[in-house]
């Protein structure tokens, strides 16, 4: 109301267009103008802007009260105004090849506001990377399943990449990431997941500089659910496997494991692949021509190096009696895998990706945490170090 009254007085009756009226109006405008000044970087119209570190908003002669940054689709970039109100920075990186609009408001000590806007476009990367991940979106998995990402390029700025992957769970549980080398990042809780847990992973990799000049190009949400608990324990000395469902023993199965010189790994292993039938060739795991079986039934992978728990129709009386394999865990089966009543078929039909198979009392070492999805063989202290 004060501004309107001053303007009316300065107008000298409305139809007066003389210079005196203009001078009075200009003086009034100066008297009421905010003393706050907003500066936005990058400047309006800028192109090829870096996705990290380039966006900043500052205020002089006053304090910022509002900063909005959004892309053309209305997606907002979160940020925080500093305690003194003199600056603002985004809480995350920007996407590549994207136009952003910035609107910032500041007020001076008298509460008078000033507004500044800027529109700019981020850089278009020449080199990019993506992450291939497991489990798949929408899947139901066992309690041992980590969320594992393998990157197509070696990452030299792991903190920036890991920060761009967020995991929320229902019910809430602390989930941490661990790097294996520079191209693999796994996430898991301290203990096995609780059955029924719902997991949502946001891959906000678009625009993340994973290594100098190489940027991520994924913006994806992945959801999966934890099913019932199934943990099976193989005792190499006893030649048995005890299957526990939700903490209760439901079956004990005679097995055969690795013979001397080909001992089965000890440790906690996670089923990462299920195959009704597959070919197993010793050439692929460094055993030369020692075996080549084209129709191994009911096979489930436990390691990247070739450890499986699978049906065995050639083992004779080994099951429950002695160890005869080249390192795998064998269960009695029939050629063709047609009999649903044999041990291998029974176990296969009741297993899922992410179930845990524990091997103990073997003469071999404990399997490496990065050999398959087997990070459970690393203590929580080392995992989070």
TrEMBL record:
<dbReference type="GO" id="GO:0018104">
    <property type="term" value="P:peptidoglycan-protein cross-linking"/>
</dbReference>
<dbReference type="Pfam" id="PF03734">
    <property type="entry name" value="YkuD"/>
</dbReference>
<feature type="domain" description="L,D-TPase catalytic">
    <location>
        <begin position="230"/>
        <end position="360"/>
    </location>
</feature>
<feature type="active site" description="Proton donor/acceptor">
    <location>
        <position position="310"/>
    </location>
</feature>
<keyword id="KW-1003">Cell membrane</keyword>
<keyword id="KW-0961">Cell wall biogenesis/degradation</keyword>
<dbReference type="InterPro" id="IPR041280">
    <property type="entry name" value="Big_10"/>
</dbReference>
<comment type="pathway">
    <text>Glycan biosynthesis.</text>
</comment>
<dbReference type="InterPro" id="IPR005490">
    <property type="entry name" value="LD_TPept_cat_dom"/>
</dbReference>
<keyword id="KW-0449">Lipoprotein</keyword>
<feature type="active site" description="Nucleophile">
    <location>
        <position position="328"/>
    </location>
</feature>
<dbReference type="GO" id="GO:0071555">
    <property type="term" value="P:cell wall organization"/>
</dbReference>
<dbReference type="GO" id="GO:0008360">
    <property type="term" value="P:regulation of cell shape"/>
</dbReference>
<keyword id="KW-0472">Membrane</keyword>
<keyword id="KW-0808">Transferase</keyword>
<dbReference type="InterPro" id="IPR038063">
    <property type="entry name" value="Transpep_catalytic_dom"/>
</dbReference>
<keyword id="KW-0732">Signal</keyword>
<dbReference type="GO" id="GO:0071972">
    <property type="term" value="F:peptidoglycan L,D-transpeptidase activity"/>
</dbReference>
<protein>
    <submittedName>
        <fullName>Lipoprotein</fullName>
    </submittedName>
</protein>
<keyword id="KW-0133">Cell shape</keyword>
<dbReference type="Pfam" id="PF17964">
    <property type="entry name" value="Big_10"/>
</dbReference>
<dbReference type="GO" id="GO:0016746">
    <property type="term" value="F:acyltransferase activity"/>
</dbReference>
<comment type="pathway">
    <text>Cell wall biogenesis; peptidoglycan biosynthesis.</text>
</comment>
<keyword id="KW-0573">Peptidoglycan synthesis</keyword>
<keyword id="KW-0012">Acyltransferase</keyword>
<keyword id="KW-0564">Palmitate</keyword>
<dbReference type="GO" id="GO:0005576">
    <property type="term" value="C:extracellular region"/>
</dbReference>
<dbReference type="InterPro" id="IPR050979">
    <property type="entry name" value="LD-transpeptidase"/>
</dbReference>
């Amino acid at each position: 109301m004060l501004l309107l009254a001053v303007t009316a007085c300065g107008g000298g009756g409305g139809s007066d267009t003389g210079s005196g009226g203009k001078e009075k109006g200009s003086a009034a405008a100066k008297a009421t103008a905010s003393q706050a000044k907003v500066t936005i970087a990058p400047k309006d119209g800028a192109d090829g802007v870096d996705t990290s570190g380039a966006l900043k908003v500052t205020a002089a002669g006053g304090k910022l009260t509002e900063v909005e940054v959004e892309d053309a689709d209305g997606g907002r970039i979160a940020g925080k105004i500093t305690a003194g109100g003199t600056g603002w920075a985004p809480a995350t990186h920007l996407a590549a090849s994207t136009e952003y609009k910035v609107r910032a408001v500041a007020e001076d000590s008298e509460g008078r506001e000033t507004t500044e806007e800027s529109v700019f476009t981020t850089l278009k990367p020449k080199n990019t990377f993506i992450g291939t991940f497991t489990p798949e979106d929408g899947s139901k998995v066992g309690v041992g399943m980590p969320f594992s990402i393998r990157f197509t390029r070696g990452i030299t700025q792991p903190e920036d990449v890991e920060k761009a992957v967020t995991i929320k769970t229902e019910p809430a549980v602390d989930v941490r990431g661990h790097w294996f080398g520079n191209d693999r990042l796994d996430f898991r809780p301290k203990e096995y997941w609780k059955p029924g847990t719902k997991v949502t992973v946001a891959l906000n990799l678009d625009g993340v500089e994973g290594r100098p000049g190489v940027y991520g190009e994924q913006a994806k949400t992945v959801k999966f659910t934890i099913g019932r608990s199934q943990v099976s324990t193989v005792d190499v000395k006893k030649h048995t496997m005890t299957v526990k469902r939700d903490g209760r023993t439901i079956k004990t199965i005679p097995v055969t494991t690795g013979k001397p010189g080909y001992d089965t790994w000890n440790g906690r292993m996670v089923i990462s692949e299920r195959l009704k039938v597959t070919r197993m060739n010793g050439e692929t795991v460094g055993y030369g021509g020692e075996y080549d079986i084209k129709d191994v039934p009911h096979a489930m992978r436990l390691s990247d190096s070739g450890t499986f728990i699978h049906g065995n129709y050639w083992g004779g009386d080994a099951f429950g009696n002695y160890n005869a394999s080249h390192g795998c865990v064998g269960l009695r089966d029939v050629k063709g895998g047609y009999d649903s009543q044999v041990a291998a078929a029974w176990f296969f039909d009741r297993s899922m990706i992410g179930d845990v198979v524990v091997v103990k009392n073997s003469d071999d070492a404990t399997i490496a945490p990065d050999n398959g999805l087997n990070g459970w063989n690393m203590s929580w202290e080392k995992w989070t170090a």
